Amino acid sequence: MTAKRPFDRAADSLRTVTLETGVNRYAEGSCLVAFGHTRVLVTASVEERVPPFLRGRGQGWVTAEYGMLPRATHTRGRREASEGKQSGRTQEIQRLIGRSLRAVVDMAALGERQISLDCDVIQADGGTRTAAITGAWVALRQATDLLVQEGMIARSPLLDQVAAVSCGVCQGVPVLDLEYEEDSNAEADANFVLTGAGDIVEIQATGEKRGFTRAEFEALFGLAEKGIGELFALQRAAAAA
Amino acid sequence: MTAKRPFDRAADSLRTVTLETGVNRYAEGSCLVAFGHTRVLVTASVEERVPPFLRGRGQGWVTAEYGMLPRATHTRGRREASEGKQSGRTQEIQRLIGRSLRAVVDMAALGERQISLDCDVIQADGGTRTAAITGAWVALRQATDLLVQEGMIARSPLLDQVAAVSCGVCQGVPVLDLEYEEDSNAEADANFVLTGAGDIVEIQATGEKRGFTRAEFEALFGLAEKGIGELFALQRAAAAA
Amino acid sequence: MTAKRPFDRAADSLRTVTLETGVNRYAEGSCLVAFGHTRVLVTASVEERVPPFLRGRGQGWVTAEYGMLPRATHTRGRREASEGKQSGRTQEIQRLIGRSLRAVVDMAALGERQISLDCDVIQADGGTRTAAITGAWVALRQATDLLVQEGMIARSPLLDQVAAVSCGVCQGVPVLDLEYEEDSNAEADANFVLTGAGDIVEIQATGEKRGFTRAEFEALFGLAEKGIGELFALQRAAAAA
Amino acid sequence: MTAKRPFDRAADSLRTVTLETGVNRYAEGSCLVAFGHTRVLVTASVEERVPPFLRGRGQGWVTAEYGMLPRATHTRGRREASEGKQSGRTQEIQRLIGRSLRAVVDMAALGERQISLDCDVIQADGGTRTAAITGAWVALRQATDLLVQEGMIARSPLLDQVAAVSCGVCQGVPVLDLEYEEDSNAEADANFVLTGAGDIVEIQATGEKRGFTRAEFEALFGLAEKGIGELFALQRAAAAA
Amino acid sequence: MTAKRPFDRAADSLRTVTLETGVNRYAEGSCLVAFGHTRVLVTASVEERVPPFLRGRGQGWVTAEYGMLPRATHTRGRREASEGKQSGRTQEIQRLIGRSLRAVVDMAALGERQISLDCDVIQADGGTRTAAITGAWVALRQATDLLVQEGMIARSPLLDQVAAVSCGVCQGVPVLDLEYEEDSNAEADANFVLTGAGDIVEIQATGEKRGFTRAEFEALFGLAEKGIGELFALQRAAAAA
Amino acid sequence: MTAKRPFDRAADSLRTVTLETGVNRYAEGSCLVAFGHTRVLVTASVEERVPPFLRGRGQGWVTAEYGMLPRATHTRGRREASEGKQSGRTQEIQRLIGRSLRAVVDMAALGERQISLDCDVIQADGGTRTAAITGAWVALRQATDLLVQEGMIARSPLLDQVAAVSCGVCQGVPVLDLEYEEDSNAEADANFVLTGAGDIVEIQATGEKRGFTRAEFEALFGLAEKGIGELFALQRAAAAA
User: What is the CATH number of the domain that holds D69?
Assistant: First the structure.
């Protein structure tokens, strides 16, 4: 059971992934993450305030916002700011990014401050939300390291790594890291967010054209574990740079 | 490894589930679904039009909207209509319900018409989105049966059943069908949407307080398969009533 | 001068009216009110805060919100939450409900807290606003009785009963308690809100197809007094249950 | 039973009322109406289109919009355009104005066109909605006369006059045409909209501080009939000017 | 090089300009400004508060809002309040008015209070924004004089006069104070805002149909200096009235 | 009269300006423009439709939208999409960009299609609107060249170049191309938009802290002419690349 992927990529291969740091001179952390043609610019901004529901409780917060430039895609989309609202898809994605990062942060160790992760898609070719999570960890790592360096906090509030990848069943074959053309024709796809310890932070699996079997799901899970392992190594390299 | 559940419910037991039909005299299909204290009123409305992106293509559409009455919960929430927008959570849920039902509908057999599933939570005690999906299938079944009876379409566009349940890890123990108090203290939880054939339509798994292991996830999956099997029987009984 | 009403109802007869309490396990008061096929679910929620313009003045507030489920009507309407705003009609109705209930409440006796009356129309067959007012009094009575029982306030802030009914001129004949089909064909209609003492809280009279004469108006007023008298008895029975 | 009114006005006296036409060089009809210090600028705009629900039905429509300049009142209010929405009060008032004028228009005679009545309050001292209705009739009369003069329609679609006034119970005394200070202290008030034939178009009566008796209501009704009779004469004079 | 202007106006002539004060009985300052058929009602409202970014800094603020009645123009425009937002044009204009007036106010001398200038266009025939600025200075002068009279501040915070006019190139000829028909056909136009001392507060020059030469621009500048000189005299006369 | 500029830049020197093309693989034209640390990503998108007011008139349209990533600035700003509206500043800027580019386009030669210029600020250090205009011309040139190459149109609709720069008076000295720190302390500043032929498209001059003299204005104009001349050379080089 084989399917020819674009550029002859193997079923269990990631696209070329790069994590470039230092791409914004003002932000406490920043990362331009690329998965093939998908490019997401992430900044981490530290603010000395927390949302109202946390005030005075001695702990911090990590949140995320997601956006896509109108011409990040093949045809121009509408600008959400001029539409007057964020789409359901945008809100769903930014909620996912925020939850994923919060899963590896010790909020008490962060202290009463907020880190906002802005994830803006410069160019989209599938997998923007998982690229955003993967890059956001790098930006968050930089921002928290900076807080430690500056003596704002005693130790890093980062408990572990977190990274994400999408997988899908295309023409019956489970494959890793879908690009846009694969994604839009996949029978089913799933986004996996895992920690460095191998624990599940989030799984979002959807049968797009048909339901998929438990066996197929297990195959996707295996691919994700392999791919995310590679992403963890890239994250560590970027953080050490 | 045991945890005492409210009302001594077994780890693999559903709450009392009822699916009452005929609860709205105007709608083409309706179902008041209860999972314990959670109660969701679902109506299926047939409209002889489709969204713009489908016009003239000879196929139908199924969509869903979700709402919660302000006092469905322990403390009064704000009314989304007076807020001027639906929350990200609401949009995420109604998108999930719509996708789940579309997975079992043959859109060409439905013809160029739309069925809207309105899912309004009258009282919330955990699991409102999975209750909504389970009840929406019953309302949708009634509406499509009516279209067949009235000779609007030749055969039912419903390809299979679909139902959903939430599971979670509470104090280390995987349990089925969380009620609110369990849900808000769970370490991790997951919503499963499966078809009558046993295929996966959607999985949304989230580590709330910590990541969870693949073994825990597999245990939740098993519980979901058991619970959803029971829901399928209740759906068939309601549809036959 | 006679007109045949649906189901041979007499010109001065109410539809079957029921006021069912205890329909929400969280709210401090609740009432499912039915006038024939019209059904409105009312909850009364006590909150220990008042609107900004009343803070620190030692008195309370009663407010109301009104909504209609999309398929409460013969054909599906749009959901106001997804529209992004409440219609002028909705705002007009909820302002009326709030004013009507405030007319019988001693705000100083209520203390610095707010009671919100949420009136959600489950099914609409004419007279939803008057049904809402009539049921809201029952829910409010329960909520205020609870405050007294729990020792939060020394005595009931409820000064009197308040109830409402619609009347109209149909084919030249003044009739009580219009159902939808009558309402949409009435030459003129009026909503009356009266206190137990017989005083006027609100009258909203509108010539829909033609102006109406002062004599016709007086006839409607008489019908309303009769009908509201019967509603007061039903309210007392529901409150005593 | 007497109460001293500001400027020793008699209980059954209108304030000085003026209806000045020709105040906008572009509008098909216009009227600056003053009731004492209350001043409302009304324009009638003819447009050769009707709302979607009337298209192709060979009949016209009359609608109204209402606004208040931010400093029309003693203290500056917020500008609704910058707030991003019209208040419930504004919507309620403009719906009332529209219904009132439609009551005296033969929509078939108007033909498939719309007349919009814009009522903008330049200065507010009570009774803005009733002043707006009274002035809007004059502007509408001018616009419909113009349509007849220009041969667009064969005969005037105006069936009768319509005018409005507010009355209230102040310190126990029924009085005509409340100014702001009276209005804000009235025990009860009512707006009456009547036709030249003496028929009721709208009554909106509200017990502000207490319910009011049927006898008080009848007294207000009598005052309104007297005052509106005087307004009809002023309207005819303005239309003849 | 000559072009015939409407009403044979000379290229360097203003339309008839009037500045009428005392047109609102509640506002601390008010001015009805007319440039030919263009009429703008300006009120100045003093409020004992400042925007959040200025609190506690011992200085004041001057801000402006701009609106246009729907039938101020030849054909009826949409009401921004019912549209739910101010247009980009409206926001641009009110920002310009605010900046222009702030340029001649000593904010420390004003003290911690805000003056809001509401500029509402009653009738539009070109040059509404420059008329608004010119009239707003008069209203602001009245309001600040009143603060001095009432002993709220020791001396006037007004440092100088400010006035504005539009100029344009019509059929190749530079002309002063465009009316609507000229403005909509101009090749280029420019708004000049100058102080009594002759300094530039704002210039907004736009090539509408083609770019314009520096020589043309200089000619417009000269016309503006002449016209604004005349406006300053009218402002002083109005302020002295 | 000299003032030390950051990095010892001469009063009449531009910052380092780069215009990088080919930065988006989907857009018909794209340019990443940098003026020192200011970086704006511009894409030109061709769409085979025009706005409603131009339909069927055989001519095209050019429009622009502007946005700023939340952390483009020293401290994080709010995301306009989540705010639910574009600020007045944003709308003012995007209107300016659109007008500036339209000034050099022959709309009939473009044919009935629209080109949208999306200008997104990645990093802001002053002069974002003028950088956007300068880069947008390059992206527009690419998009129109592509239309010619593909035979969609017979000849280029671009009539000339257009570029822009800001100038200001800082500590009494007129200087070219302000960076953020200069801009926020300038006594006055002005944005100039000129064509290749030297004609004025737009001038927006504002006295920020004080009015400025006509002599100062003329000095700024001279600096702008010099700087824009250099920008034209860079645009031609980028277009030829």
Answer: 3.30.230.70
